[in-house]
Amino acid sequence: MRFLLGFVFLAAAGLGPTASSAPPDPVVSVWYRGRPAGVPQADDLAAIHAAGFDAVTWPASSVVGVATMARMAEEAGLTVVLRPDAAALTAASAKDPGDRATVSAAGALGPALVPIAWRAVAHGARILSVDAGQAEGAGLRDATGRTSSWVARAAAVARQLRINGALITQLATMPPVTFDGAVPAALDVVLLEARKSWVLIATNTSPARARAVVHVPHEVPYAIWLNLLNGATLSMLAEPLGPRWNVDLDPYDARVYVIDKTLK
User: Each residue of 147-156: pLDDT tens digit?
Assistant: First the structure.
């Protein structure tokens, strides 16, 4: 069983954590603190996997339950992320998330789960631990016993990171795009590149629409881009200094556009 937090935890061999320099694979994990706290339950872990997740985040402070967690998680098909409890990303801090971060599924930040998650990915996060804010369990179900509303949204992000993991691992930052006039505070647009692709990630973390005029560097084509999240296409306007995109994002919207590079 592999543990992620900059360490490989060799629980089965009875050894402590050892440093690992390997970059983390992109993954969405679910915070799970046991039920009761500190005691993992096999049924809970199976439910997390069945909901569409490949990893579970366990508090680094709960060392007593680590060995049991390792065994149960492996049986459930989950990787374990060991993390200390940390503040969840905000719209602002998602622009400097580090490679591992917590995304809230509860409270005021809950509706912005998807754009905050993708904003964090755009700025370098690769392990996202989604936290429903439960002292016990994972919060997959609400008080009525129904699946919590955040589960499908987080699982959709998890699916994209799983499918497009190789692309996301390659992403490198490009010079910032430029804007005409004022930029809505809740809007973030990031241009990235992979070996064979250009990627644009745009996020709106507010309950209002976000509009802006964005200019992309001239080496990036203005032809048809594909949104990985819903299959929609985008055609930019060709201008001498580079493509222009008239951005219009719905409330709490995220777009992840990709286009192939023209290889010479």
Answer: 999 999 999 9
Mean confidence (pLDDT) of the chain? 90
- Give yes or no: residues 76 and 113 share one domain: yes
Interatomic CA distance for residues 250 and 66, integer angstroms: 42
Q: Positive or negative, the Cα torsion across 126, 100, 89, 68?
A: positive
Q: Among candidates 163, 139, 207, 191, which has minimal Cα distance to 28?
A: 163
Long-range contacts of 228-237 (CB under 8 A, 24+ apart): 228/160, 228/164, 228/256, 228/257, 228/258, 229/156, 229/160, 229/254, 229/255, 229/256
**How far apart are alpha carbons 94 and 157 in whole angstroms?**
15
Q: What is the CATH number of the domain that holds 230?
A: 2.60.40.1180
- Rounded-to-integer distance, Cα 234 and Cα 212, Å: 15
The C-alpha atoms of residue 154 and residue 40 are separated, in whole angstroms, by 22
Query: Beta 127-131 vs 27-31: how paired, if at all?
Result: parallel
Q: What pLDDT score does 222 carry?
A: 86
Predicted pLDDT at 23: 58
CA distance 117 to 205: 10
Place of tokens 């990915």: 121
